[in-house]
Amino acid sequence: MKLHWKIIIGMVAGVVFGLLMSQTSFGSEFIKDWIKPFGTIFINLLKLIAMPLILASLIKGISDLKDISKLSTIGTRTLGVYICTTVLAVIVGLVLVNIVQPGNSIKEETRIDLVQEYEQGVLEKQQQAQKQSESGPLQPLVDVVPSNIFDATTNNRNMLQVIFFAIFFGIGMILIPPKQAKPVKDFFDGFNSIILKLIDLIMLSAPYGVFALLATLVVESPSIDLFIALGMYSLTLIIGLGIMIVVYMIIVKFVTNTNPISFMNGVSAAQLLGFSTSSSAATLPVTMDCVEKNLGVDKEISSFVLPIGATINMDGTSVYQAVAAVFIAQAFGLDLSLGAQLGIIVTASLASIGAAAVPSAGIVMLVIVLGQAGIPEAGLALIIAVDRPLDMCRTIVNVTGDAAVSMVVAKSVGKLKDPKDVNKN
Ligand code: ASP
Fold first, then answer.
1. Class of domain 3-422
2. What is the mean pLDDT of residues 126-130?
3. Quick one: which of 283, 254, 307 has its CA closest to 395?
4. Best residue among 306, 312, 358 to mutate for probing ligand 1, ranked by most atoms within 8 Å of CB
5. Pocket of ligand 1 contains residue 391 by CB under 6 Å
6. Among candidates 328, 395, 329, which has minimal Cα distance to 361?
């Protein structure tokens, strides 16, 4: 049976089991004590492999290039396409939220109740956001350059720093005589193969991991009434995310001549895992596996484009920033001027680039977007309760966007296999 089917079965079984068990308090406790840890172990395993994977695959990928000009071509194209899809995603969100106007459907009492109930959660997010926004305009650039690589690799949030080091190291390898670079290159080639094998092993447990994650989620999720009150908001966001998926399907069709259905099938295991883990960083190993094996992207490209994409290209998060910011403004009866909305395009794009590829990163960055647009930050309380399921959905889009862009970049430099030659497994 194909992996994505096994994962789907795990997910469905997890939801059903969670629903059954949540009927009694014993059942809920049982899931928290005996099932949840397995979900955590699964996510930890994926995260564990992310840093070594980035190091090994990027150093290997770049040293394979043999030529710095090739690297700068790939780099410029990757960043260019990422920025375009991000801005497009914010615009999709803005247009949609202005058409549907979900904020006007929320009742005054519901708004007051929610603001009171989730005050504490808002405070926490504000504090986290404050740390991020206190710095000067060039701080994000400074943050990319680590002062100690061993220190940088000890925290998964420092992925951009490790990417920087790996690229820098790879460039050094290209610039020295090939004979001298050979032992190091052989080491990283072997290291990379081992990591890929480990990913295969971890993926054997994926169906069980997602079972545990979803069963826990069902038990811990807020009441269904909340979802109904926030139905229009959630729906608007989900439509926006759906539009982005269609955009990717059109892009891969026209740019790479790949059948959109084959594209979706090829990337499905990564999408399901993105949904279950809510983290594009944790999903990265599987995204790489999918685009290489199922979509025909050369390792040289995927090992460069995907780790960068996982950290800076979050189109789902971009749609979300736009929809959520304007929704909150509408719910508070604020009329945002065109200037304020254009400002949202800039801040939401930057916020999604700056967001870490971990669960709930988007809502922390949203605080900054709200602050810049003059929208009350207390409005976060309106959406915080339903944020997790929506985070799961936006992570699917984040992962799919990275995969689509890797195909586009690969095609542009002749490193994409012809769709007919791709081994569909
Ligand atoms: N969870 C998302 C991701 O990892 C980020 C977000 O919160 O929007 O891709």
1. mainly alpha
2. 75
3. 283
4. 358
5. yes
6. 395
Q: Say which range, 184-188, 241-245, 248-252, has the weakest mean pLDDT.
A: 184-188
- For 416, phi then psi, to 5°, come to -115, 130
Encoding tokens for residue 393?
Answer: 């959905």
How far apart (Å, rounded) are the C-alpha atoms in residues 251 and 147?
39
The total number of residues shown for the chain amounts to 425
- Mutation test residue for ligand 1: of 286, 398, 400, 402, the one with most atoms within 8 Å of CB: 398
Q: How far is CA 221 from the centre of its chain?
A: 21
Q: Please tell me the pTM assigned to this model.
A: 0.87
Which protein residue has the closest C-alpha to ligand 1 atom 8? 362
* Residues 6 or more apart in contact with residue 55 via CB below 8 angstroms: 153, 162, 165, 166
Q: pLDDT at position 425, please? A: 46
Query: Is the separation of the CB atoms in 86 and 314 below 8 Å?
Result: yes
Distance, CA of 140 to CA of 287 (rounded, Å):
26
Please state, in angstroms and as integers, the Cα–Cα distance from residue 311 to each residue in 54, 245, 334, following that order.
11, 19, 33
Please list, in sequence order, all residues whose beta carbon lies within 8 angstroms of the beta carbon of residue 25, skipping any fewer than 6 positions away: none
| pLDDT single digits (tens) 366-379 | 988 898 888 888 88
